[in-house]
Specification:
2 copies of one chain form a homodimer. The first copy, chain A, is built from 9 helices and 2 strands; from the N terminus they run H-H-H-H-H-H-H-H-H-E-E. By secondary structure, chain A is mainly alpha-helical. Chain A binds a DNA duplex through helix 4 and helix 5. Chains A, B: Keywords: Chromosome, Coiled coil, DNA-binding, Nucleus.
DNA sequence: CGGTAGGGATAGGGTTCT
DNA sequence: TAGAACCCTATCCCTACC
């Protein structure tokens, strides 16, 4: 009827990956609207992009969605094995890493704090943070929740303890996603905790 | 972020329904502030409540929001199946019915049923039409707008064509909401038209 | 500014096709 | 039979409008 299973071409897949690299995961409509990819992807919907990306990621991580589900149920303690097939993981990381510097060009998280950002973090614990990531890790550490705080708590902590001149919601959300993807954080039931392997880096 | 899909529990849903029953639809912040529900719903926002209620209502009426939209556009033949899931419909009716007697106590229009209406399960469809409802239907019919008149036009029509001794604004607004909820009216872009399925009841 | 309504996007479970 | 492609819809997000 409508679409007899339109297989993804290599070109489309490349465009999708580039799009995720540029705009981050979860920005399917944005990617689709980007003139850089819209021509190649014009026969795809935002949902198609989402589904395809899921296939790519999950395949790289587990081999298939089915295995992924089984793995999540059967082995609650062991996370994904990054050594399996790192390509998609790399792409995910890369993509999310790029988010920071992208959205509106205003995020610029790693810019070594401008001359005197006109707003000094009032209650910073570890001096001038140049990275939102560090703030997030601090939040998780200080919040001391049994299974880790959830995203809202983290966001609230940051908003209450730092003077930010912008809305941190999306940025924090992006970075949580990123830190989870690269394995720095472990996400369980919407709660984030710092991976044991990274505790010493905090 | 914090909750990429925090599914509603049965308990939360019950609290929401009770809240609507008590305070009426559209009073999401009020429901959230009511100590009777605030503990159960503490992880929800007023917007969450609004969305969930929309989902409950629309699911009961049409099966899903998508189907509802499709039904509004085409498919003149198939309407909602009242026998499908009447519970939410009933609750919607009940809730809105209570609104009438609630706000300022001045609405209190015509209880079509005897005094003991308070403990009686209301009939959702063909339900308690008030005289104002009939006037509203007349207004919509006579105004003959392409996609139906909006609330203001309906109100103006009533004020111009009937001598009412009270301010009809809130009352008309309530009844429009009610008639929309029970499926008698279909609301699209602030305009109201009579559902094809109820045209013959006018 | 805070709240609500409504449109619309996303996430994830489920289904169909190959 | 597995996996890719696609569907369904609860939930979440954005914006206009009071």
């Amino acid at each position: 009827m409508g679409a007899p299973k339109q297989k993804w071409t290599a070109e489309e897949e490349t465009a999708l990956k580039a799009g995720v690299l540029k705009h981050g995961t979860g920005k399917w409509r944005t990617i689709l609207s980007d003139p850089e990819y819209s021509s190649v992807l014009k026969s795809r919907s935002n949902v198609d992009l989402k589904d395809k990306w899921r296939n790519i990621s999950v395949t790289a991580l587990w081999g298939s969605r089915k295995k992924a589900k089984l793995a999540q149920k059967g082995t609650p303690t062991s996370g994904p094995r990054p050594d399996d097939n790192a390509t998609a993981i790399t792409i995910v990381s890369l993509a999310n890493g790029h988010i920071g510097g992208d959205v509106g060009g205003q995020l610029m998280l790693d810019a070594p704090s401008p001359p005197e950002a006109s707003c000094e973090p009032p209650r910073a614990f570890k001096g001038p943070f140049t990275s939102v990531d560090k703030i997030i890790l601090e939040a998780i550490t200080n919040l001391k929740r049994p299974f880790g705080p959830d995203g809202k708590s983290i966001l609230r902590y940051i908003e209450e303890n730092f003077k930010m001149q912008q809305d941190m919601k999306r940025l924090v959300s992006s970075r949580l996603k990123y830190l989870t993807n690269v394995g720095t954080l472990v996400k369980t039931k919407h709660k984030y905790r710092i991976s044991p392997n990274y505790m010493d880096e905090v």
